[in-house]
Amino acid sequence: MATTPMTYSPSQGAERRQKQQQMRRMSQELDWKRSDGRSFHQCRPACLQTGATNAASGSAYAEFGATKVIVSVFGPRESKKAMMYSDIGRLNCNVSFTTFATPIRGQGSDNKEYSAMLHKALEGAVILESFPKTTVDVFALVLESGGGDLPVIISCASLALADAGIMMYDLVSSVSVSCFGKNIVIDPTAEEEACQDGSLMIACMPARNEVTQLTLTGQWSTAKTNEAMELCMDACSKLASIMRSCLKKSANLSS
Amino acid sequence: MGAVSMVGGGDEGDDVVTPGELLGDSAHLVPGRGAYLAPNGRSVRASLTGTRRLVPPPPGSSDQRSVVEVVGLKAHGAVPQPGSIVVARVTKVMARIASADIMCVQSKAVREKFTGIIRQQDVRATEIDKVDMYQSFRPGDIVRALVLSLGDARAYYLSTAKNELGVVSAQSIAGGTMIPISWTEMQCPLTGQVEQRKVAKVD
């Protein structure tokens, strides 16, 4: 990381813009080196743990490079009295950022739509008929936002749901790619995301080969979309096998 | 949680499965609790994290396939199901309804309470229109009840209309734990006062 000044200086904005422009120019080159030394198609090392919080029915903690997320799942528990009766269960998702998650305090709260996106990604995977009339609450807290937040939140939430014993069709793993001109780069960091031209995020259930959510921003040609999707699906299945081994390890430790 | 150290020899024969894992073919297995039939109709997959268990088919049944179940590892919080026996604490007694907080389902404690109601016609099996709710339950009584149905948005419907259902433990006005003397009366050991309740016949 570049040196962070100890006191606030008004010229910081201009410096950052200059750095971004420089990075944008560099990233259009085919032989551009990423700041953490990864190749274009290499994901960050994933560190996953279940059972992080004791009060919740299930919980998981994920660290993907600089992005740190903790998810707690409560339920199935009684729905609020004001809700109407439903003969399938309800999923209630909430994503919040801590005030220290971003370098500038309070900047992470711009991402209010993450809660709805997490809900869309998970509701296809949870068997809602197994808990009629009750609600499952998923609370995700981003401790540090280091880029590619939503994919990490989705993967961590599905691990927490599996830890809580909620019936699911399959684990949901999620990966995003950024495109810089002709380059497609997987699992971007925060500074790469800031100067990207477009992004593609996929949340899928690898064992069933089904996609629960796909988000695309920017301008993409069909060939590039295909290439990016194949890249993502491959990374998702690798991530899912890491998630499975994490669940099995914690299961064997507890028994 | 804890350090990631490989536990050697801790997993003999206990194959832990995770949601989405293939358990077997639908030609040989029937999905039980914790497993489901995949949309292509041919494979059976797990829907929970746990150990896989095979239940042999009952002898003489037409379907000779075993039932495969996944037994969850974590003590999954209980949820009231229709037909299960629950233990609840009465919170409010009104003219036609008594409301109760469900605390245990089939001898397994719940993580957070569920709300249930006992209607006048479900208190006992005989003379259901002459039931006086105040002479059947009082707030604070522990009752054993049967879940009739999921009920409405607010509460599960419970019933005590059997001999073994009803008030299991209650405190008298004087504060002592009462002793049941018949199926309608309980007596306080401190004062000797007899109070009316719908008492459960406990063996």
TrEMBL record, chain A:
SUPFAM superfamilies from the UniProt entry: Ribonuclease PH domain 2-like (SSF55666), Ribosomal protein S5 domain 2-like (SSF54211)
UniProt cross-references to CDD domains, sorted A to Z: RNase_PH_MTR3
Stored InterPro entries: ExoRNase_PH_dom1 (IPR001247), ExoRNase_PH_dom2 (IPR015847), ExoRNase_PH_dom2_sf (IPR036345), PNPase/RNase_PH_dom_sf (IPR027408), Ribosomal_Su5_D2-typ_SF (IPR020568), RNase_PH (IPR050080)
The keyword RNA-binding appears for this protein: yes
Compartments, as annotated in UniProt: Cytoplasm; Nucleus
A single MF term (Gene Ontology): RNA binding
All copies of domain Exoribonuclease phosphorolytic, residue ranges: 42-166, 170-231
Any Pfam family the entry gives: RNase_PH_C
Family to which this protein belongs: Belongs to the RNase PH family.
Protein name per UniProt: Exosome complex component Rrp41
UniProtKB/TrEMBL annotation, chain B:
GO MF assignments: RNA binding
Cellular component annotations (GO), alphabetically ordered: cytoplasm; nuclear exosome (RNase complex); nucleolus
Keyword set, alphabetical order: Cytoplasm, Exosome
Domain Exosome complex component CSL4 C-terminal: 106-150
GO biological process: RNA processing
Gene3D superfamilies in the cross-refs: Nucleic acid-binding proteins (2.40.50.140)
Compartments reported by the entry: Nucleus, Nucleolus
Domain of life: Eukaryota
Domain Exosome complex component N-terminal span(s) in chain numbering: 16-53
Name the UniProt record assigns to this protein: Exosome complex component CSL4
Organism of derivation: Ananas comosus (Pineapple)
